[in-house]
Write a structure and sequence with these properties.
α10 runs parallel beside α17, α11 runs parallel beside α15 and α11 runs antiparallel to α16. The protein is of the alpha/beta class and 397 residues long. It is built from 17 helices and 16 strands. The chain binds zinc ion. The site of zinc ion (ZN) has 8 residues, from α13 and α15.
Length: 397
């Protein structure tokens, strides 16, 4: 599609590759600035990363945010956002933005939606009003939202599902991908369209999907349909089939995945971009990241702690407040807690991403990964067991 390539200011270059794993450090250029990968993208569901301002995002090192098409099309509506000049202007964020296609949210509506070759009909979770998403009108909606990187409508198969259901969802996703590309060409926008790889938990289907979507003129690839309730080890196993089939020169986005340990493991399996509500969501509930694992700031052990949440942390919260004060705010349900907790976790994720990048460039990624995973202790025994499995799996790659 020559015209879109001519108009787009998007590019991706690989700066360094790890010789022992599939990790790579890269640079993505967009019209709203550059992104150094690997990168974590915070989720701004309603055109805001809950409780923090764009200036605070910037200070935490956030380079790109993800916004949800499903939520924004229903409220306030994509046309209204377009009238304000698009998402960047509406929300006062001038860095890069990625919008998802709404597919994942619609498919999680269960009985409220109906699937056909044309698209997916659903009822709004807000007021029950009927809507139809098609590969074509999703392009129109995302065109109005105006994000730098956009995703086409796809089908996330149920978990677990039969092989036939997985194949059907994947094949339809492929047909919809082609329809999205044709529609996008008509819009003549300079937005960057990523393709979505599906195939549920069938290695062969995943390989087939990676090859099919990888050959289409998408400028990047998102891996969809993972982190839907499966054991983490299954997700990493599947990526071992997917990554080798993907074109090397396009950025790879692992949709909806992004705990600290996921980021560290996923990078070694060739992923460049991660997004997840987890870091900001758990922060609001008192879960704060440290290099030794997630702590609960509401715990009595922080009641009189003079030190910061993590003494080596360079975030606004840790530079200015004791753990005891943050503990007090969290226990009292004060508004300021949500902001301070969120800032700390965001900074943790963005610092981790840049440490991963530095390790890849310095040729020390495998050692960095092993040290991080050995130190980072998840809270429960169950989680700890998963962690061990993941670590072993990552090492055996
Ligand atoms: Zn901090």
């Amino acid at each position: 599609m020559p015209s879109q390539e001519r108009m787009s200011s998007f590019s991706f270059t690989i700066d360094e590759e790890c010789p022992e794993t599939w990790a790579r450090a890269g640079t993505i250029h967009t019209a709203h600035g550059s992104i150094q990968t690997p990168i974590f993208m915070p989720v701004g569901t309603q055109a805001t990363v809950k409780s923090v301002s764009p200036e605070e995002l910037q200070e935490a090192g956030v380079a790109i945010i993800l916004a949800n098409t499903y939520h924004l099309m229903l409220r306030p509506g994509s046309q209204l956002i377009a009238d304000f000049g698009g998402l960047h202007q509406f929300m006062h964020w001038d860095g890069p933005v990625l919008t998802d296609s709404g597919g994942f949210q619609v498919f999680s509506l269960g009985h409220l939606r109906k699937l056909s070759e044309e698209g997916v009909a659903f009822k709004s979770h807000l007021d029950g009003s009927p809507h139809l998403l098609t590969p074509e009108n999703v392009m129109q909606i995302e065109f109005e939202l105006g994000a730098d990187i956009i995703l086409p409508l796809d089908i996330c198969a149920a978990y677990p599902c039969t092989r036939d259901a997985a194949r059907e969802a994947m094949e339809r996703t492929h047909r919809w991908a082609e329809r999205a590309l044709i529609t996008r060409e008509r819009h003549q926008s300079n937005q960057t369209l990523f393709g979505i790889v599906q195939g549920a938990f069938e290695p062969e289907l995943r390989q087939q999907s990676a090859r099919f979507i990888g050959k289409l003129p998408f400028q990047g690839l998102s891996i969809g349909g993972l982190s839907v309730g499966e054991p983490k080890i299954d997700m990493w196993d599947l990526l071992r089939y997917v990554t080798p089939e993907l074109p090397k020169g396009k950025p790879r986005h692992l949709l909806g995945v992004g705990s600290p340990e996921d980021l560290v493991t996923g990078v070694g399996l060739g992923m460049d971009m991660f997004d997840c509500v987890l870091p900001t969501r758990v922060a609001r509930h008192g879960g704060l990241f440290t290099r030794y694992g997630r702590i609960n700031i509401k715990s009595a052990r922080y009641r009189a702690e003079h030190a910061a949440i993590e003494e080596s942390c360079d975030c606004y919260t840790c530079r200015n407040y004791s753990a005891a004060y943050v503990h007090h705010l969290a226990r009292s349900g004060e508004q300021l807690y949500y902001r301070l907790g969120t800032i700390h976790n965001l900074r943790f994720m963005l610092r981790l991403a840049s440490q991963l990048r530095a390790a890849i460039i310095g040729g020390t990624y495998p050692a960095f990964r092993n040290n991080f995973l050995a130190q980072y202790m998840p809270t429960s025994e169950q989680v700890r067991e998963n962690q061990r499995e993941k670590w072993k799996a990552a090492r055996s790659r």
